[in-house]
# Entry
Amino acid sequence: MNWLIHDYRESDLAAVVHLIDTTAELGQESVFSLAECIGALTSRQPAVVAVHQGVPIGTALACVAGERAWVMRIAIASAWRGRGLASALLVELERRLVAARVGRIAYVLPEEDLLGEGLLNAGYTRQPAVAYFEKVEPLHGPAANLLDDLGGRLLPGDLWAKVAGMEREKDLIERRVVLPLAEPERAARHGVRPPRAVGLFGPPGTGKTTFARGIASRLGWPFVEILPSRLADEGNLAAALRSAFARIAELERVLVFIDEVEEIAPVRSEPAQPGGMHGVTNELLKLIPGFRERDERLLVCATNSIRSLDPAFLRPGRFDYLIPIGTPDKAARAAIWARYTDGRPDVDIDELVVASELFTPADIEHAARIAAQSSFERDLVSVGGRGGSDERLPGATTADYLAAIAQCRPTVTPEMITQFESDITTHARF
# Structure
């Protein structure tokens, strides 16, 4: 990604108007006139602008009427078409609209199909027909307030597509979890029951939370995370858990995520110890069957140590699948590095892949951040802090990335991998 996207500012007006005006002839027409777009901008309607090296290269703007918003125009400079900028602008614009409690987002585009000959014979004058696109945001009003109370939110719609690498795990989750939930009627015709609860297990930092968020994004469902530590602050953990699930039941659809679930569902000791977790585990075991009775909801629990969980918690009647999420293999690491290096041809991805064995996606992200910071600081020093640039290509070099990798300590040890492989044999179910 070679651009930054920010909210529209008054100083952007001339550049944005130029973009809208000059791109109309490039197939980026709109049913809204230039004057209407200018009126929306000057009246502070939601709009975003993409810039590259300080120059506006794209814009997206909307107008809001009650709970409905109309996307008026997405304009992209010709040199930047086909690079994903339009999608990025639309995602950022949608975030602003959802925050403004918009319930429906509509997009009206001209279409080039000819009108029927019968209409022409009836005296109609041929005009461009209209293709009407509408996106329904699932929560507004009281439901949105409830989601806020639960600490949940609607996630951007592109998170699933952004999951880099880990293609085996992604494909498995897509087939087993996402598609049956996204296509319930088709699944029912084949006797497939959509999952209601799944467990993700594997070493820390391997992307379990990222997958849970990606599933919610892919389905367009609200994402609510239950934090055991926050529930514990309420005093009675079992009662707090019961209260949280009761409020969640009021949502029409939802993905509930519990990370480090071993904190509230550990192996129960016999006999139960006063003040221990026995009662909390029992409460969660009681709550899951009721949660499973409703459609359009999914419980995702993640753990770094599946062997620490109570066996009754993991049985098929409660969890449909127990899916292992391990460290990325060579192909996955290459895909992740390609994402963070922005596909630059001068960076040796193969060398980075070899150097980052056992690195988790989180480790790679951390190393990439260190390398980017080194490049940024070098750029500032080269011009005495005046923000210019040297003659080399901007961005971190292979050497920068390798130095960053050397600074990082992998989260996962060989011993963890051995334990994980044993857990797959003992617990995995997919």
In short: The radius of gyration is 25 Å. The longest helix spans residues 361-382.
